[in-house]
Amino acid sequence: MEITDILSHSNTAVAASSEDRYKATKDQFLKLLMAQLKNQDPMDSPDVNKLSEQITSFGQLEQLMNLNNSMEGMSKFQSSQERSQAVSLIGKTVQVTDDSLHINGTNKGNVNMRLTDDADEVLVTITDGLGRVVRTVKYENAPSGSTSFEFDGLNDDGLALPNGDYHVNIDARKQNGVKVGVSTVEEGVVSDVSFGNQGTIISVNGKEYRIDQVMNVKAASEQV
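Above: the chain sequence. Below: its structure as tokens.
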């Protein structure tokens, strides 16, 4: 087997993220290199430039493998940190991004938002599961920070909306028409944390959210 064949096999090993296969290939490369040097014909010396290129290529391959291992280690560390942070949220009051509105019987839901600045006018548009606008509500003089408006559960014709899930879109502006940053939020106590294929998931008010949807964690003095 030629050294170039060994290098080709090494590339396959790295692509498959197999450290054991890489180590075995490295041993093969070194053994073959030593055998070629030991048994070389004194009258027919090997191409020094070619040999140097092969050694350099294998060195680069080893650096790539080391970098890959470092990245995997960093990823595992970050995952561990994320899990620890998520577990520490249990029992704490958090705000998570959530543009949904659930209507169920007497529970009409609230429109919760977080404004980056005071807004003179806030227009809330509610759509159903098919994307149809069922209600528009205009509020005035909303302060910066977290604001909540109680929703009456009615459509634009004054009729009760059917139970189900709806989507909330909010447009906040100053008097001069300049937009104000706004996010729809859900606030509640973290009751559970789970880990799976979807990543780290927390439960708030009976609903599941990704850990990256957490916008704010209330201090102990602010806990409900």
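The chain has a mean pLDDT of 77.
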